[in-house]
Design a protein that fits this description.
It is a single chain. Helix content is 73%, strand content 0%. The protein contains nine helices and no strands. The protein is globular, with a radius of gyration of 19 Å.
């Protein structure tokens, strides 16, 4: 089987990732403020939902560039629009969903409709002849409809529709798994993009543990925390570089969804 030639990660993609450095820092803030010394289960559930919501947007953009992107005007403009919307999205991440309901979900809706147009205009094949394209468009259409309907209804009931929209956008490709073709995936590029978002997450972890590194440089707690983070990163690096075949023909779904869990 022909070896896959890795698609180069563009500077604009790396620029786009900087927004998610901020988004991840905002997400982690959701679980940094205990109530009476602990965090209620509701906060953890909200945290998981927001992680899925934000990362599925990042994944759809990454998948588009991986499968169809060729640095044309439609790709550049679409990515810039996604960046613009992602800044608003990230800035409205908190545990008080009522306060930022409209701003957050309007940003998500703008990103979703922008992704729909990118997939429709940026693919080199016709919509009716490309099952991959059909699958992604169906998932994004359902997400967009639920987001807009939720916004129209308002926070009290609309929030459930908006959450459902994000979850459907995340899970729908799994339901339609078999229609996607492995040969359309540039797996080396996908692995590199996924690794970058994990590195961003580890970077946020390092920022959050710095307050333990005070006083004596031989503090047992600081040493243990640092070694724990280093070990996690080492295990991840070993899995990606030694045990993952970067040039295999695969749909890439296992890699994508396991990275969200990580």
């Amino acid at each position: 089987m022909k070896k896959i030639v890795a698609k180069q990660v563009s500077m604009l993609e790396l620029f786009y990732d900087l927004i998610f450095v901020y988004a991840i820092s905002r997400i982690t803030m959701m679980i940094h403020h205990p109530i009476d010394g602990s965090l209620p289960p509701r906060i953890y559930i909200e945290f998981i939902i927001v992680v899925i919501f934000v990362l599925q947007i990042w994944l759809y953009q990454t998948v588009y560039i991986n499968r169809f992107g060729t640095s044309r005007a439609v790709d550049t403009v679409g990515l810039l629009i996604s960046m613009f919307a992602a800044i608003y999205l990230a800035n409205n991440i908190n545990t008080e969903w009522r306060l930022t309901f409209h701003a957050f979900n309007l940003s998500a809706a703008l990103t979703t409709i922008n992704l729909i147009f990118q997939y429709l205009l940026g693919s080199s094949t016709h919509f009716k002849r490309d099952h991959d394209l059909q699958g992604f468009i169906i998932a994004l259409d359902l997400e967009f409809i639920l987001l807009i309907t939720g916004l129209i209804i308002g926070y009290q009931y609309g929030v459930y529709l908006c959450v459902a929209g994000g979850l459907i956008g995340f899970l729908m490709p799994l339901v339609m798994y078999r229609i996607f073709r492995p040969e359309q995936v540039n797996f080396p590029h996908l692995v590199e993009r996924l690794s970058l978002i994990i590195i961003i997450t580890f970077g946020e972890t390092l920022v959050n543990i710095t307050h333990y590194f005070k006083g004596a440089i031989y503090s047992p707690l600081a040493i243990a925390i640092f070694l724990g983070v280093a070990a996690l990163f080492g295990v991840y690096t070993l899995l990606v570089e030694r045990f993952l075949n970067h040039h295999q023909h695969t749909r890439g779904f296992i890699a994508m969804y396991t990275h969200v869990v990580k």
